[in-house]
Design brief:
globular; 12 helices; alpha/beta; single chain; two-stranded antiparallel ribbon
C-alpha cells in the first residue's frame, strides 16, 4: 500500500518578495504551518517531515523544535526530519534531542539524517572536504547511541570516552531511521546501516537505480529491506481539473524559480565573496543539484553564477493534475522506482488560500482514490 507523507519547508506562502524581519509575517507563517499540519492528523497522510536549512530565507533552522510543537497537537501522524544536517550538530547533543523527541512524540518519531547544502557551510567555515567525513563520524556515533547507553568514540573530529546518553530512545517495532540520498554510494551506506532511503528531484529511472543498489547491498549485508523502506520526494499540486493544473504549473514554477533565487541570494553572495571551493566528493554526491536553484527541468546549463550543477531536475519531479491524475502518477512512480512512500511538498509560491484548499479539499480526494486502489 502506498503511503503519502507531507513535507514542509516552512517558507512564507507568497510569490512576492517577503521581509523576513517582519515579525508579524514570521509569526503568521509559523502559526499557519502548525495549524495546517495539526489537521493532517485526521487525514490520509502517514506523517509529516520537516527539513533543516540555515542562513537562507527559510524558517526551518531548528526542525526538532517544530517536531516537539506539533507532537503536542497531534496523536496519530508520524513526525520527523529529512534530515537533520549532521555536520551542524554535536553528536551527543543530537542523540539526546532525538531520544527526548522519541518520548514527546510517544514513539511517532521518524529519525532522518542528511549531509546538507554546501553553500550553507560557508557561513560557519566548515571546509567542504570535511563535510562528508564529519557526517560519517556523527552517523557512526548516532548508531552507537541508539544501541548503547555509554558511548565511546575516537575519530578525527570527535573523541570521547564513557559518555552516557540519556534518555534512552524508545524501542519501536518499525524501522524509522531515514537517509536522504542522491548517489549510489549513499544508498549502499544506508543499506548496510539499516536505514530507510529517500531521494528527490531525480527521474523515476534514476531512483530505480538507487533502489536496486540499496536492495542489492542490503542483501549482501544480510539486512532485510522492502518497498516500505523506500521513498521519493516530489512537488505535488492537486487541482480540480488537469487543465487547471497545467495552467497553474506554468505560473507557479516560474514564481518558484524567482523565489528560490531570492532564498539562496545571501548564500550565493557569500560563496562568491569567499571563493569557497566545492570538493569533488560533494560534486559527485548530487547534493548541489538538489539544493541549488535550477534552470528548470532537463536543463543542460550550469548552476547559478557558474557553480557546478549538472541538472538532475526531471519532469518526474512535478506531479500536477486532477485528483485522479495525481493518484495515478503517484502509483506509477512508486511502482516504477520500487518504493511504497511518496513524500509530497506543495509549490512554495502558492498563496495562503491555495495552500489551505490543497490540504483541506484536494488531498482528501487523492487519498480516497489511493485507498481504493490498494
Amino acid at each position: 500500500m502506498i503511503k503519502t507523507w507531507c513535507c514542509d519547508f516552512n517558507r512564507v506562502p507568497d510569490a512576492a518578495p517577503t521581509d523576513y524581519n517582519d515579525q508579524a509575517i514570521v509569526q503568521r507563517t509559523y502559526n499557519d504551518m502548525l495549524d495546517r499540519l495539526a489537521k493532517l492528523d485526521d487525514s490520509g497522510f502517514e506523517g509529516v517531515f520537516f527539513a533543516e536549512h540555515h542562513f537562507i530565507k527559510s524558517l526551518m533552522p531548528v526542525p526538532n523544535l517544530l517536531i516537539a510543537a506539533l507532537a503536542q497537537r497531534t496523536r496519530r501522524i508520524k513526525i520527523g526530519v529529512l534530515g537533520n544536517v549532521l555536520p551542524f550538530h554535536q553528536p551527543w547533543r543530537l542523540a539526546e534531542e532525538i531520544a527526548t523527541l522519541d518520548y514527546l512524540t510517544e514513539g511517532r518519531l521518524e529519525i532522518g539524517v542528511s549531509s546538507g547544502v554546501p553553500f550553507e557551510f560557508d557561513f560557519v567555515n566548515i571546509d567542504p572536504d570535511d563535510v562528508r567525513p564529519i557526517y560519517g563520524e556523527i552517523l557512526e556515533i548516532l548508531d552507537l547511541a541508539m544501541q548503547d547507553e555509554i558511548v565511546n568514540f575516537e575519530g578525527k573530529y570527535f573523541k570521547f570516552k564513557d559518555v552516557p546518553i540519556m534518555p534512552r530512545p524508545r524501542e519501536e517495532i518499525r524501522r524509522r531511521r531515514w537517509m536522504s540520498l542522491y548517489s549510489t554510494a549513499t544508498a549502499e551506506r544506508a543499506a548496510t546501516r539499516g536505514y530507510k532511503i529517500c531521494s528527490a528531484y531525480q527521474s523515476v529511472e534514476t531512483c530505480r537505480g538507487l533502489t536496486e543498489a540499496y536492495m542489492a547491498k542490503a542483501d549482501e549485508a544480510g539486512v532485510r529491506v522492502s518497498a516500505d523502506d523506500i521513498a521519493v520526494r516530489r512537488q505535488v499540486l492537486v487541482c480540480e481539473t488537469d487543465a487547471e493544473a497545467a495552467e497553474q504549473k506554468e505560473k507557479l514554477l516560474a514564481a518558484n524559480a524567482e523565489q528560490t533565487a531570492r532564498m539562496f541570494a545571501a548564500a550565493l553572495d557569500r560563496h562568491d565573496a569567499t571563493k569557497a571551493k566545492v570538493s569533488d566528493d560533494i560534486k559527485n554526491s548530487g547534493v548541489l543539484d538538489a539544493a541549488a536553484p535550477s534552470h528548470g527541468p532537463n536543463s543542460t546549463t550550469g548552476g547559478p553564477r557558474g557553480l557546478p550543477m549538472p541538472a538532475l531536475m526531471s519532469d518526474d519531479e512535478y506531479i500536477f493534475g486532477s485528483p485522479t491524475t495525481v493518484a495515478e502518477i503517484i502509483i506509477n512512480q512508486c511502482r516504477g522506482m520500487g518504493g511504497n512512500n511518496m513524500i509530497a511538498f506543495h509549490p512554495h509560491s502558492l498563496d495562503r488560500d491555495g495552500v489551505r484548499k490543497l490540504y483541506e479539499k484536494m488531498w482528501p480526494k487523492v487519498h480516497d482514490i489511493l485507498a481504493k486502489a490498494a
